[in-house]
Amino acid sequence: MIGITGANGFIGRAVLRRIGAEACVAHVGPVDGEAGAIDICDQSALEALFAGIDTVVHLAGPSAVAASFNAPAAFARAHVLGTATLLAAAERIGVRRFVHVSSAEVYGRPDTACVSESAPLLPLSPYGAAKVAAEQLVSGAVRRGALDSATIVRPFSVYGPGMRANGLVGRLAAQARLRQPMRVFSADTVRDYLHVDDLARGLLMAAARDEPGLMTLNMASGIGTDVAALAAAFARAGGGPDALIVEGQGDRSRALDIAHLVADVSLARETLGWRTEITLADGVCDCLGEMA
């Protein structure tokens, strides 16, 4: 039985779609800390919700990096205190396997072309710092025997149906649908784009892992794409002009910007047999199809 926190979120909904497609038995909890949902810091409510399950996939918590600069305490509460509370509940009710969804933001600004799981954790945002702290809580739970098995997953730039409209991919999709010139804050920033359905599949593979102990895995395509190339892909898919206009300021200061963030994904391939199946070109069409 699988329990999911953050089931109402962008990634959570993709996991639910995948569970339905595979006819898995799941106990699903809409735990995301938002109004009308169970508070991720309410241990008794978590214990009642997840009683009888043996595996938790932990997705709850806000994910907007830019917003974390203005609300660091709220992000720390959701990701650090929330994870600590969930782990305490999991120990009380006998959960033995735990999948913690972290973020590539924990790496900060790496000095390698492709960052591996062994790279230093040097976050530049309150969100990234909170994710590092949450990872340490999960690691400690395994070391003290509160969990038999835990997998920390660090997704890179996740996109797809249901993504935030004000993020880079969401903005490009909106402009492409209107056949407008692509307007971006920077043309040469490189990211590793991962379709949310590929991530959902990987999370369920991690949840099925039987090996004891802690494992940390990057999940990404392993391919770097700069903003100019991404914008061009949207322009082609939308049938609009290929003009690229660079203007304005991004969602973080230049001093905190991360110019290049691409994953080494060999460990996920070797240990889970997981790799991406959705190409960026197909993913772009998927985003535009959702908006049609």
TrEMBL record:
Residues 4-210 form the NAD-dependent epimerase/dehydratase domain. Gene3D superfamilies: NAD(P)-binding Rossmann-like Domain (3.40.50.720). Coiled coil: none annotated. Its EC number is 5.1.3.2. It comes from the Bacteria. Belongs to the NAD(P)-dependent epimerase/dehydratase family. This is Putative UDP-galactose-4-epimerase.
